[in-house]
Structure prediction request, 336 residues.
Amino acid sequence: MTRSLIIAPQWIGDAVMTEPLLRRLHARGERLTVGALPWVAPVYRAMPQVAEVIEFPFAHGGLQWRARKNLARQLRQRFDIAYLCPNSLKSALLPFLAGIPKRVGYLGEARVGLLTHRLKNPPKGQRPPMVAFYSALSGETDVTNDRPRLQLDAAKVDATLTTLRLQRGNYCVMAPGAEYGPAKRWPTQHFATLAGQLHLTVVLLGAAKETDLCQEIVGNSAPNGIVNLAGKTTLAQALSVISATKTMISNDSGLMHVAAGFGVPQVAVFGSSSPLHTPPLNDAAQVLWLKTDPAYQPPLDCAPCFERVCPLEHTRCLNDITPARVLQALKRHSTS
Prediction:
C-alpha cells in the first residue's frame, strides 16, 4: 500500500475543497496521512478516508526552520509520496527534508528543486475552481465534477449538541464572519433583521475575533432566541453544529464550504468575491450575488473586485442584498 502524506492548506474553506482529491487517492489504495495546522485539522477528521492527522507545530507565518527539521526527522521513511496543496516554499520544505521520494505539487514560489513531480501554475486569471485545482494533484484528468463530502459520527454530534443545549434540526446557523475582510461580509444589521423574522432558534458561529461582530447582531435583534457561540466553540464543535442545522446563512467563508460539505440547506451571500471560482458545491445551496442579477440596476461593473475593503466605499454588492431576499431564498428551501 502506498503511504501518502498530504500537506494541507491553511484555511478552512481550502481544506474542505481538498476532500475530493483525498477521496480519489484513497479509492486507488493509498493510505492517507494529512499534515495540517491545528486550526484546520478538525476538517480532516470529518473525512473518513483519512487514516491519520498530524497537527503541525508551526505558527502562522515565518519559516520556523528548526521546527521543520525536527518534524522532518520524525517523518523519515514513513511515506512514499507527498502531495503539496499549498503553493508556498515553506510547505515544500518538510517533505524534502523528510526525504519523501515522490513530491507532487504546483511550481509555486521558487520550489523547483524541492518537487519531483511539478504541475504548471495556471495562467494568471485562468485558475480553475479550487476543487479542480487540488484534485489535479492526483494526476487524473477528469476532475471537474468533484464535490466535497464531510461526515461525522452521529453519536459524537449528538453529544456536542447536548453539551451546547441544541436540538438536531431545530435551529438555523448564521456565520457572519469572513476572514478576508469586510468586503465579503453581509451587514450585521441585515443579519439582525433576518434573525428577528425567523421562527427558529438562531445560532451564531464564528472565531473569537468575530465575537464583537456577532454581538452586534444580538444587540440589534428582537429578543427571540439567539444563541451566540462565537468564540465559545472549538472548530470540531462548530462542525457538529453545522452538520445538524436545519439551514445556514453565511458569507463566502470557510464555514460556508463546511456547510456545503455536509450537504445542509444553505444560503450563501457573495459580494466582492465570485461564486464562479469558490461556490458552495452543494445541491442544497442557494447563492445570492447581485453581479449576475439582470434585475439589479445599475449593473455592478465593479464586481468581483476581490478587495478586502470596497474601493468605491459603498459596498453595494452586499448592502443591497436585503434580508427579505435572503428570507425568500430560505422559504424556497422549506417548500422544495
